[in-house]
Every structure is written in C-alpha cells, then in structure tokens.
Design goal:
The protein has 8 helices and 5 strands; from the N terminus they run αααααβαααββββ. The chain is α+β, with helices and mostly antiparallel strands. The protein has 2 domains: 15-58; 72-180, no CATH class. Mean pLDDT is 81; it is low at 55-61.
Length: 182
C-alpha cells in the first residue's frame, strides 16, 4: 500500500471511532481477579504434586533410603538393601561392594575447583579428605506392573561425602545403573 492510498483511507475514518479509541476506559481490563488467580495457582500446584507423585511411583524420582555410617561401604550397602523395602521391588542381592581408589582419585581431580564443587561447598581440601567413590555390583528384580526399571545384575558408582562433625558418610550422588541380564 502506498502513502497516498493510506492517507486517503485514514481520512475516510469517521472521527467517532477515533474519539472512542482515545477515550477508551481500559481500567476494567487491568483488574486482576484474585479468585481466578487463586484457582489457577491451586490447579498448577495440584498438577505439579500429581506429576511428582507419579514420577516417584514410576521410579523416576526415587531417593536412596540410606543409613549414614562411619563406613562408606556400609552406607552404600544400606541404600541398596533399602531398595528391597520399596513396593515395586521383588528382591535385591548385594554381590560386591568396595571403595574404588582410582575412581575416587579421578573424580576428586575432576571436581577440584569446579563450579559444582563450589555450589556444594566442597573445597579441594574437603574433597581430598572427605570424599570417596564406592563401586557396587548387585542383583535386583522388580514388579513390572509397578515400575519400568530393568531387572538384572547392576553395577553402579556411588559418590559419598563425609560429615566432618559426625564422621558419617552419606551418598551425595550416583551414576546411572549399568544393568545386564547375565
């Protein structure tokens, strides 16, 4: 559209519409209805709670039930054996658990000075004295009507930190399980 056509079209507008647009009262549009916001917020909270519950029931979010101990191997063993108490687990058998010194050294080196270590409050000195990696091999069988998790022999690394006051070790992270059917 060229300028002349636009100008001609604008001159055809009735001033009544321009006057209405200039005096338009939009105050009724800007009022937020607290009740509707409250209902919306409650609905969002309900949906998030249901999604969290569903994720937990499916095993997507499932924290380790552990008993911190002064022995990191015992802490991991308690976490693995704690899986047996979950409603979707049929059986658990721990085959081998050990502190993996070479993996501990590798991970400490990787974490030292990292943003993750800073976020978690881990200094290089803390990591050197209060961090350990435990490797575990165990067999687990699940009720597949209650979870999608795979049965089988599982190998997994657990990353533990030690509470400097109590001396107890707790799992702070772990790798995804490497599951085989053999």
């Amino acid at each position: 559209m060229n300028v002349k056509k636009f100008s001609d079209a604008m001159s055809e507008l009735d001033t009544k519409y321009v006057d209405e647009a200039l005096s338009y009262d939009k105050s009724h549009m800007s009022k937020v209805r607290p009740r509707k916001w409250g209902i919306l917020i409650a609905a969002v909270i309900a949906v998030l709670a249901l999604c969290g519950f569903a994720a937990y029931e499916l095993g997507l979010f499932d924290p380790w039930l552990q008993k911190p101990s002064t022995d990191p191997v015992q802490t991991v063993q308690s976490a693995i054996e704690g899986q047996a108490g979950k409603e979707y687990t049929i059986s658990v058998r721990v085959d081998e658990i050990k502190v993996d010194e070479s993996e501990t050294e590798r991970v400490i080196e990787m974490y030292s000075g990292s943003d993750l270590a800073k976020e978690r409050g881990w200094t290089d000195e803390y990591l050197a004295e209060h961090f350990v990696v435990v490797w575990a091999k165990y067999y687990v069988e699940y009720d597949h009507t209650k979870t999608f998790l795979d049965d089988g022999y599982t190998e997994q690394y657990f990353y533990l930190t030690q509470d400097t006051k109590s001396g107890e070790w707790a799992i702070s992270d772990n790798t995804s399980p490497n599951v085989t059917t053999e």
